[in-house]
Write a structure and sequence with these properties.
Three copies of one chain form a homotrimer. With 397 residues, chain A is an alpha/beta fold. Chain A contains 16 helices and eleven strands. The longest helix of chain A is centred in the first third of the chain and has 19 residues.
């Protein structure tokens, strides 16, 4: 009980009214207090679950998932989040549906939402498309609710788009908050968000963009490094610059992995495709230019291969603060000698951090559940208190 | 509470004993009272959900779906109906199962039903097959229950067959009942169920058949119109004729969309394939005659193209009662200039009716839930009263 | 209540402490008491469900399924078992996930298990692989739990591997216990586990292996018969030999279906592929030698065809005890003249035993639920008593 009171009093000090009846598209659209409220509710839900107290706030209702790209971690995290709140998962498999040529997004969004409390979407492949699609769906169901077609307005949770991957970056962030013992401990800490070599091409930009867009808000020294030509979306870099200024932190860019790793407290080396190439690919797909896509793939792989030295090796790790920076990754990582010949990270480095990496991933179900709860419940303090008071066992034996 | 009492007293006046432990194959196998009871229970369940009262009558149990054709609306409606009653959905994906050559329908039906309270099937592609398959499944599980293999007998809900689409026509009907302010207001109202042009071929007959088979029971003036050669199943037309006579309504046929629309209170313009062509296609599939199927498709598309003037345009709408008939569609519609170049309905007409169209669709989850409840619960009045008395919140915050 | 007390006092006499927090890989790793406890809990859960008492011990939580081979019966049984205990099913579809080349089993196992209470796996195609994979998953999540990444340690249930099919053999066994009126009635009863002809090749060995590995523990006279060349895994035959010696039963082998059927109380005629051929196939798949696989298939079918006389005909049945042995099968059977021209069993034999066959299959959901419950609950007597005391209705009308 002592613990839960901490969460409740933490929430009492925050202003997160804007989240009720809202959606979660991009972390930088949320206020600092709203971000903290999300972490706090996530932690409170985790505490309840760890203490075998039911976290169900729904007796029935659906959580809709729509994965336009493969997913394991996020799929199971969304499924877990829905389940722990009492929602049943219903996947929209566009291949098995009638969503043919021409049916409007508005119509589909309404037709699947008569009993939906949340819609989670992954659409990360095409620049300029994924986030826009999510907003179109969210707008459609909001109108459907106002027009009286839907009994309730489902909240939209971005499960990775072309711009941001908020459920990932929030999980990463909550992990480092807990690892370093509190958000106040992060001030001045250096994090290296760096590109790393991978034998695959076209990995989404949303993870590194999400990281610099979020971690720049806590007074940290965020160093973004990548080889020339691996630029991100300029809008997101602008967000990071502004965030750093406001939070009393720094946002630095370089083309040197070593500079980034030097004295870093945290490193996040990860492959991604250049923004310009992703934009080009989006256009090629738009034109069904499959020869063009193949040529682009080949070009990108050749370009990647020039930067095999961007690997998180033991030597690189020695450059970090006391040679023991915290290593982060959204997983799965391309591990040299394990999942590929040469990759993002040396096997010995990865293995040393395996346990904290899994812990990092373990936050995602709770982050998603918190996002849903904050959109669905006006006063989460009251709701959490009620859950504690009722004390229904999650597993009653 | 006032509202729920209305529903309960409405039910008290109806005789629907026949629905308990039964199935729902075709609307015309149900008595007039049974149809009304379904609407009433659907409305009561909706009222409960709108008032945040749990509608769960199951603590656990499975709802099995078996979609032998693509589906979005009905899939999500069935999923929603199961969820609101407390059942978990388990889809039978025949591709992932061992249902190979030779395993009998009886065996599969029993093997999936040990904990099933409802089986929902869509099988609408082949004339003479879909409804027959559903009856075979229903018979098998009934025998399995009697033989003691199944703890409970799942009720079968027809989610669209070759003959009828009862969850659709019942939703359409409940929509017009509420739109016009009560079932007694429908007497003498004219509804035009008409063919409309679509650039796709082979749309099932079950929607228009379901509509004339159901709407002819309420004293309405049902006008069926289609180009020559687009005949429906004669048995269903016979049902409509008989229904109209019994209910003091009319059932008229013509080959003129204009005659149908003239002074109509309600219009339902929708593409379908000729019965004879569907029968031919069924045989071609039976013989694996893929060249024959291709030739038939081409022939049907050419035939369709001769009737592009069968479009629900603004001019056509002007012919209707006060130029403001209610426009119905089961969705998705082929909207000219939106989902196709030339289609069933002009974009401006569709847009004007978009909100009522979504409302029309919103009835389906409740209609399905009512069908399940009436088959599973002996006295729905008591069950509904209990739900109100318990007053468990659907979303407790 | 009288009934449930019988189950509780039966459990009081058994020592099954080893099952708590454990997994279920192979029946012969479980003590005799543990096997009996599983039957008893299964029967108690069935009694509760038959009496409309909720069997939910979870308020929320996930059951993960991973079917690496097609399944209908076991899929729905696992789904039913999860549902009756209160768990939501989440299928791991490896095709839709990111489980690409290289991601370790350990990582995937942890990533899907943050809220998993049970993982059910079918992996029966390759000799030396399936069971090993299950153990790797179970080890990974156990470590993940100890390392603090998982809130709870999911129990692993073997839904068929290369060695055993415990949920099947346990269902078969519980069926014969109830058919013959108690486990003490089985002493000295003769069961014929025999090969039978099928026009398909490569059926897993796990069913017959599971049967001889389990049924040899109850003092029965287990007769294994197959044509020369259809040998099983020698380790499993050794298990059966040892079991028979310990239980005061017999384990006999022959190459004669007639010898096996002679005076048998129970017959289980079923096709399988020779162990050596399955091993060869595993290696061919490992080498992506698809020509080799085709050649092997052809060879196996030719070899099978030499033994078409291994069919459970009426004449064969006449050899059994009073010509009325109980016929068992895991289903679906290859029924001569129904599912194939010539198969494992004559249609008239199959039809006569259809009802008991379905009953046999009906045990599986309860067996699986019992396996989960015994791994999750320290004192099932207390849990079952609580369920009876609470008396929440499964279907409350």
């Amino acid at each position: 009980m002592a613990y839960i009171k901490q969460y409740l009093s933490a929430l009492d000090k925050l202003n997160f009214n804007g989240m009720f009846s809202g959606d979660f598209f991009l972390t930088w659209e949320k206020s600092y207090d709203e971000i903290l409220a999300t972490f706090t509710v996530a932690d409170a839900l985790r505490w309840l679950r760890e203490n075998n107290v039911s976290t169900r706030i729904f007796d029935s209702g659906l959580g809709i998932s729509n994965f336009r790209d493969n997913s394991t971690r996020t799929r199971f995290s969304f499924s877990s989040a829905c389940n722990m709140l009492g929602l049943a998962l219903q996947d929209l498999d566009e291949g098995k549906s009638q969503i043919a040529h021409g049916e409007t997004v508005r119509e589909t969004a309404n037709m699947i939402s008569f009993m939906a409390d949340v819609i989670g979407i992954r659409d990360d492949m095409y620049i300029g498309k994924g986030n826009a699609y999510m907003r179109e769906v969210a707008k459609a169901v909001r109108e459907g609710f106002i027009e009286g077609n839907l009994e309730q307005c489902p909240t939209l949770v971005n499960l990775q788009c072309d711009i941001d991957h908020p459920t990932q970056s929030m999980s990463d962030m909550n992990h480092i908050i807990q690892y370093f013992g509190g958000i106040d401990k992060l001030k001045g800490k250096k994090i290296a968000m760096t590109w790393a070599y991978s034998p695959s091409y076209g990995k989404p930009l949303s993870v590194p963009q999400g990281v610099i867009g979020l971690m720049s808000r806590f007074g940290m020294d965020v160093h973004l490094a990548h080889p020339e030509g691996y630029e991100m979306m300029p809008e997101v870099e602008a967000v990071a610059t502004k965030n750093a200024a406001l939070s009393g932190g720094k946002f630095t860019k370089s083309n040197s992995m070593k500079d980034a790793f030097k004295d870093a407290d945290i490193v996040y080396p990860k492959s991604w495709a250049p923004f310009a190439a992703m934009e080009k690919r989006t256009n090629l797909y738009g034109n069904n230019d499959f020869d063009g896509i193949k040529a682009l793939e080949k070009e990108l792989l050749t370009q990647n291969a020039k930067h095999k030295d961007w690997e998180c090796t033991e030597d690189m790790m020695k450059l970090t603060k006391n040679a023991q920076a915290l290593y982060l990754h959204c997983l799965p990582a391309d591990i040299s000698g394990v999942s590929c010949k040469e990759g993002e990270v040396a096997a010995s480095v990865f293995d040393r951090y395996r346990v904290p990496l899994y812990k990092e991933a373990s936050h995602k179900p709770y982050i998603i559940a918190a996002m849903i709860m904050l959109a669905k419940v006006k006063c989460p303090q009251e709701t959490l208190s009620n859950l504690v008071a009722k004390d229904i066992k999650r597993c009653f034996s």
